[in-house]
Amino acid sequence: MDPLSALRDFTIRGELDKIVRVNDEFRFGTEYSFPCSAETAYRSKQGNLYNLETLVFYIQNHHRRHTEYMHNSLSLRIPAVTFTDRKPLLDYLTGKVSTSDSIVWNPPKFPDEFRPDPSGFDPDSTKPKATKREEERQRLESQQRKDGLVAKSRLMGAEERGLGLSYGDEMMGFDSKPKMHLKGSKLGEGVPIILVPSAFQTLITIYNVKEFLEDGVFVPTDVKVKQMKGARPECVTVQKKFSRDRDRVVTAYEVRDKPSALKPEDWDRVVAVFVLGKEWQFKDWPFKDHVEIFNKIIGFFMRFEDDSVESAKIVKQWNVKIISISKNKRHQDRAAALEVWDRLEEFVRGRSHS
């Protein structure tokens, strides 16, 4: 069976969870195995054949808004399905239609060696190496970046006019209902924002937040500053790359350390803050008190487990989660990072449905 037919079959059967990536191949349960870079028979309206990695990532994320999907694809360097191809491709993969003009039935042949051995033997030595199509990939990524910029500009334009962005079956349109900023606790449109202190006396900063949240490893800020040779990032994108339940859904977050640079509408996207434990951190924030802040934004306070109780005296009066890590046992950092992710995702789900 070819990759496209296998993916459609597993989608219709509701068994997408059985498609597992192992190194550079996708394994469809114990039935089939294909290289991630294998071309499928589905041709984009731009003329190229989508590879299997692109289609698997799309079908696993088709429920997301196009702007969010594009952002995640760019972050993971996976060529994306274009906006115009999304609906017809989804209709075909889910079985809503039986065929499509975009399908070119002359896909490459995949020998039986690609089928996983039920005994557990991995016949790597018998598999032909996946052909690298760097030129094609670069072209796709270039188009993807272009699509992402167009979608982002439309989203930003809509927000500036106080409008929400919605997607129809064939084209993008604007919701005529005005957005209300800071009137409630519902999550705003766009990539969620996490705020961190700009002061170096806190454990988590703009310099080391990526290693902690993505890799589950705490690297002291001064070490990261030396590695980066003092270059201060304005914004860092982080994603959850590990979990206890092997959840493969990826959500991107923007991390910033300059609240004063946020526009009024940006505050609707702020979902979390790492607190310093000082009152002045919240100066000029658009909230009346700590109760309102930590009702709309989840707070985290990072500390070393052997720090004095006094270090968290003020924080204990606030509705924030205290996360303790060891000064020396770096293998314990992962559990602390997972606790942050678990709390954050639960909070975001609550805001999204409020």
TrEMBL record:
Signal peptide: none annotated. Residues 2-108 form the Paf1 complex subunit Cdc73 N-terminal domain. It holds the Pfam family CDC73_N. InterPro entries: Cdc73/Parafibromin, CDC73_C, CDC73_C_sf, Cdc73_N. Residues 108-151 are annotated as: Disordered. Keywords: Nucleus, Transcription, Transcription regulation. It is found in: Nucleus. Residues 124-149 have a biased composition (Basic and acidic residues). Residues 191-347 form the Cell division control protein 73 C-terminal domain. One of its GO terms (cellular component) is Cdc73/Paf1 complex. GO terms for molecular function: RNA polymerase II complex binding. GO terms for biological process: positive regulation of transcription elongation by RNA polymerase II; transcription elongation by RNA polymerase II. Belongs to the CDC73 family. PANTHER family: CDC73 DOMAIN PROTEIN, PARAFIBROMIN. This is PHP. It comes from Gossypium raimondii. The lineage of its organism: Eukaryota, Viridiplantae, Streptophyta, Embryophyta, Tracheophyta.
